[in-house]
Amino acid sequence: MAMAQAAKPQRTIVVCGIPSGLLEDDIMADILMIHFQKAKNKGGDVEDIVYPTPIKGVAYITFEDKQVVDNVLAKAEHRLQDKRLPMDYPLKVSLYAESVFTCVSCLLDLSILREKSTLEDLVEGFKKNFPVLSFGTLHPDGRITVQGPFSAITSLQKKLTRKLHNSVSKAKVKPGSTTAPRPTTRLAKTDLSSEVSSNFVQSTKKEGLILALDTDIYLYMKAFQDKTYEESLKSCGVISHRFSDGEVTTICLDNDPANPNAGQLELAKELVEDLVASLQSDLRKEILSLEGSNRAEKHQYEQACETVSSQYPRVLVIPYLTHIDIIGTSSDVYGFMQQVNTMVGNFRKEPWR
Length: 353
Fold this sequence. Notes:
Strand content: 15-25%
Distance between the termini: 31 Å
Largest sheet: 5 strands, antiparallel
Order of helices and strands: HEHEEHEEEHEEHEHEHHEEHEHEEH
Strand order of the largest sheet: 2-3-1-5-4
Helix content: 25-40%
């Protein structure tokens, strides 16, 4: 039984791109099950399906056989088709054990580049250069939503920064504006003033001093790898400054004048990037939604997370007003969530609590 539970994440896939608001949730779950059971989709017997989830347009599907998972992932394209749907919908399918940090949503403000480029042509160019990204509608004010792998979002950010540097002498940055992608899926942890934002834009001219990473990766690194992180910087004579804006944390590396080893910025950057890459490949995140829960129900989830945390010392729990983020390895997060949900269920069976 224990071995079967431990292997369950390896038999589970994450499905993204499910159209929301078109049908009842139970009907959509039925359509998904039919899709992933069909032989033409390389599917097989489905053990369990979780839909809806706290993340819009995402479902978790567990198969009875691990080989079916491999077959489903090997299929080049999955398109959700059903007579109850108005059209076909492309789906993104990944293994549950893969990092959840492969997907970021952000809001880009392209208005500052309006004088240098036709924004419509600019966006079309981005679509060709970054086919893995999904672009929303370009609004008249120059804003557009973008969703996709964090690495591609970061590459797009760098491309925009270079374009901005080319035009910065011809146009001034508007007070309060920023050039970096502004996440919309979570409240910003730190408000960046216009002065800090402007300084950040100027500092990016120093090649090799800037690293952009997922905020959750940074928080996990500081919680469990802080000693390694600090020792890596110290060995290179480098100090760091951090600016967090929602899902994106920017680390600025500078020489430490008090350290005789100062001057190895590139080496420090490589060491930090290696540390971040190892975490990004190992970690995933689950979200416990608290929306619609009363104070007592929120307390139950918080109490359960606190209790279960002692059994999972390498899981990071980050509470927010509307949700709780659970970050760790795939197997740890899976076991953590199972125990929390079981404990909360038991709480609600005992009215005196």
